[in-house]
Design goal:
Layout (H helix, E strand, L loop, with lengths): L8 H26 L2 E4 L2 H11 L4 E4 L14 H10 E5 L8 H8 L5 E4 L17 H18 L4 H26 L6 E4 L5 H6 L3 E5 L10 H14 L3 E4 L6 H10 L2 E4 L12 H21 L8
Parallel strand pairs: 1-2, 1-3, 3-4, 5-6, 7-8
Length: about 300
């Protein structure tokens, strides 16, 4: 009696499938471990970073929604979040001075802190560099260069994404330049000294600020000086910020019969890849309403 022939091929296939199935969870864990974990400090930096990494890395913002960087006090859990992430992306230019001690505490594990202000022509006492898309381009390049160095395997994708996003920012820059070139008056007064970079890059002039610092009530002498500047410059619209209006702003508007318009400094807000562009265009729309309605267009740009 002949022995039955047994084919081992089906058995090998079953064994191979079993081994592969057993390896999948481990492989996924390894892949997840390899992904960059990035912490940003403010929403604009989140937008910049998210556009660069897409779905190739994990990005979260350090500050809670609605909380700005000026008044923030970090908590012990924040130190752990930053240390676990390994990469911290900050604005720089003096905005997050409170980060220094956090970086010291979290840096033992090899924390990489990326200062996005490198290469920006800094204006003293104004850290709001992101409010000008020209500076945003520099910040995006700084972030991309650092992430490519940290994660060379995804370097080509990061570079491609960064280049595509920079193209969008340059289009945004062109939109602002085109609008600003047509404004007959270039002088403005704002609540805080937050728009100096925007003014420098688009030919505007800050005639003064109503509040010299975010947490300081302006002195009567300062208010008197600002009101004088508004009269001399013939300013008919002042720029404040969203939220309850300070008494000083309401008083100036009433006394001088000027209208209040709100501009977002973008220090706090929602988190999304398109958020920065949306907010910048919203600010531009507010400026157009203010300058066009109250001053008209310059002769060189009249149709």
């Amino acid at each position: 009696m002949k022995a039955a022939k047994i084919s081992i091929l089906p058995l090998l296939i079953i064994l191979l499938i079993t081994i592969t199935a057993c390896q999948k969870p481990a492989d996924k864990a390894v892949m997840k471990e390899k992904r960059l974990r990035i912490i940003t400090t403010i929403p604009p930096l989140y937008s910049f970073t998210k556009n660069i990494v897409g779905n190739l890395a994990d990005v979260e913002n350090l500050l809670p929604s609605g909380v700005g960087p000026h008044e923030y006090s970090f908590k012990p859990n924040d130190v752990k979040r930053v240390a676990d992430a390994g990469i911290l992306i900050k604005n720089g230019a003096g905005l997050e001075n409170w980060l220094d001690s956090m970086i010291d505490l979290a840096g033992a594990g090899g924390l990489k802190a990326i200062d996005t202000s490198i290469g920006v022509d800094i204006i003293n006492n104004d850290p709001h560099i992101w409010l000008s898309p020209k500076n945003a381009v520099i910040q995006v390049k700084n972030i991309a260069d650092a992430l490519i160095k940290a994660d060379p395997d995804n370097g080509k994708a990061y570079r491609k994404n960064a280049d595509e996003y920079i193209a969008k920012l340059k289009l945004l820059d062109e939109e602002i330049s085109s609008a600003a070139s047509g404004w007959a008056k270039k002088d403005f007064v704002s609540l805080h000294s937050a728009f100096l970079y925007f003014a420098r890059d688009y030919g505007l002039r800050q005639a003064g600020v109503i509040m010299e610092s975010p947490d300081k009530i302006p002195a009567p002498g300062h208010i008197k000086d600002i009101m004088g500047r508004i009269r001399v410059a013939g300013i008919k619209a002042i720029f404040s910020e969203p939220g309850p209006q300070p008494k000083s702003v309401m008083m100036i508007a009433k006394e001088l019969d000027v209208k209040i318009y709100n501009l977002d400094t973008m220090e706090a807000g929602d988190l999304s890849a398109g958020w920065y562009e949306e907010k910048t265009r919203a600010n531009l729309l507010v400026m157009k309403m203010a300058f066009d309605q109250h001053y008209g267009v310059s002769k060189g740009n009249s149709k």
